[in-house]
Amino acid sequence: MLQGIAASDGIGLGRVMLLEEHSLVYSDLPPAPPQEELVRFRGAVETFCRNTRKQAELLRHSAGHKEAQIISAHIQMLSDPYFCGEIEKRIGEGQRAEAALEQVSQLFIAMFLASGEDVIRQRAADVRDIRTALLCVLLGLKEIEVSEAPKGTVLVAKEISPSVAAGINPKNIVGIVTEIGGRTSHSAILARALQVPAVLGLPGSTTLLKPGSYVVVDGTEGQVLPDPDEAVILAYRQKRARFLRRRRQLNKMRGAPTQTASGERVGLYCNISKPEDAEKALEEDGEGVGLFRTEFLFMDRDRLPGEEEQLAAYRRAAAALGDRPLTIRTLDVGGDKALPYLNMPKEENPFLGLRGIRYCLQHPEILYTQLRAILRASVIGKVRLMFPMISTPEELWAGRALLEKAKVELTAQGEAFNPNIPVGIMVETPSATVLADLLARDADFFSIGTNDLTGYMMACDRNNPQISGMFSPLQPCVLRSIRYIIDCAKAHKIPVGMCGEAAADPLMTPLLLAFGLNDFSVAATSVLSVRSAISRWSLSAARSAAQAVMDMATEEDVNRYLQARPEAQPL
Ligand code: PEP
Ligand code: MG
C-alpha cells in the first residue's frame, strides 16, 4: 500500500495510464533571426490562448464556472506585460523563443515559490503549465490528451497540470495519482470539482505503478493499492458503493433548508480562518460564518497587521457573504497560538495563562486597532463581533468600553460603521459557564467553544494520549455545562450558537437540538453532513434522546445509547 495525500474523496478501481511528459528539448536548434523568432513566439501565444479558451469551455461544462476560471487565468497571466515583454526582450537580443520562454518562466517560478503564501506559491504551477503548453506549440508537439482515455482509467503522472485536467472525462477517469501536488493545488481543486478520487504527492508513483496494471485509489485515505487481490477488490467495491450512496444523500442536502424532521429551523454556519474561506463557505452551502478566527491574519509574519490591512480582510469576507452573518472573533493568542514577534513571556501553564481577551486587555492598543477595523467593516453585510476566552463580566465590560471608545473616535473622524454591531462572547471557560446568566445580561449572543470548554471542564489536555478518552463533549459534565449555557441564553432571549468541533459531531446533534441551540458553526466540509444529521431527528425524538442521556453517569453509556439510535446510523 502506498500512502500519499488525500486530495479528492472517493474510491476508484481501474487500470494505470501513465502520462509521460514530452521531452521538450530544443537546445540543438539554433535561433532564427530575432524578427522571425518574435513572429514564432507571438503565433504560439495566439495558438495557446485559442486552445486555452477551448479548454476552459470544456471545463465549464464538466466542472463549473469557477474551475474554468483556473484555466482562463492562464490567458491573463500571459498578458502580464512584464512576462511577455521580458521574453520578447531576450528574443530581440538574439535568443531562440524557446530559450527565452524557459528562462523567464524559471524566473517567475522561483519568485512565486519564494512566497510564504500558499495561493502565491500555487501560481508557480500555473507558470509551469503555461511554459509547457507554449513549448509544445513552439516545438510543434501535440499536448498530452487525456480526453480519449478509455473507461476505468487511473491517470498516473508526475504532476497533472490544470490544462491536462481540463480534458478529463469523469465518466472514464476513475482516479488520479501524482508525485507532486497537495490538497490546495489546482489539480486537487479540479479533481474535487470533477468528483474524481485523487491521491497526490506520492513520490515514485510513476515508476512504482506499471502502465496497464490494476490499482485501487482511495482518495479519502490518500492510499493507492497496486495489484490488489480479489478480496481487496471486493472490499473496496463495497466501500465505493457506500461512499457513493452517502455522496448522493449529501448532495440532496445542497440548497435544502437546515431543519429537523419536524420542521424546526436552525442556522448552519462555517468556521473560517482566512477571508477567502468565506467564499468557500458559500460554495459548501454554509449560511454564513459563525467564527472567523482572526489570529491567522496575525501569524506567519514578523509584525502586527495594521488597521487598513485588517479592514481589507474583514471587508472581503463581509462582501463575499452579502446579507449572511459574519462573526469576527477578536485576536485569540496565547495557549498553543504564540506570535513570535510579540515576545510573549514563556508561561508554566499557557492554557491557563495570558490567552485571548486577557492578552488583548493587557495590550489594548492591539485590540483597539482590531476593533476599529471590525467596526469600519461593519457597514457591509451583517458583521458581528465576538470576544474569546471570557471568564469574568469585567472582561466583557472592558472589551465593550474599548469598542465604545473606538466608535466615538471613528464618529469624530467621519468614518462610517454600524453603531448597533452585535457583541457576543465565546463561552469556553468554566467560569463563563457558571456565570452564563450574568454574562447573558451584557452579551448580545453566545457561541459555545466546546474545544476549550471540554478541556477546561474535564481538566484534561486533549493532546495527552494517557487521558485522551476523557476529552469528549459527551462527558456528562460537558453536556450539563452546554445545557446550562443554552438555558441562560434562552432566559435572557439572546441567540446561542456553537462553534467548537462538537457542533459537527452527529452524536451531539439531537442533544443540541433538544437543548434549543440556535445555530451550528462547523468546518465548510461538514456543512452537508451536519444538515443531514439535523434532518434525521424530529424535535420530539431529539428530546427523548436528551432526556435519556442526561440521566446517565458515564460518557460510555451516553455514547452507546446515541450510537444505537436509528437516527444516528451512518448513511
Ligand atoms: C473552541 O474553543 O471551541 C473554539 C472554537 O475556539 P478555538 O478552537 O479557536 O480555541
Ligand atoms: Mg477556544
Structural commentary:
The protein is built from 23 helices and 16 strands. It is α/β, with parallel strands linked by helices. The chain has three domains: 23-139, Enzyme I, Chain A, domain 2; 153-251, Phosphohistidine domain (Glucose Oxidase, domain 1, 3-Layer(bba) Sandwich), CATH 3.50.30.10; 267-568, Phosphoenolpyruvate-binding domains (TIM Barrel, Alpha-Beta Barrel), CATH 3.20.20.60. An eight-stranded mixed beta sheet has the order 1-8-7-3-4-5-6-2. The longest helix has 29 residues, at 34-62. The structure holds phosphoenolpyruvate and magnesium ion. Residues 428, 449, 451-452 line the site of magnesium ion. Phosphoenolpyruvate binds at residues 291, 293, 332, 428, 449-452, 499-500.
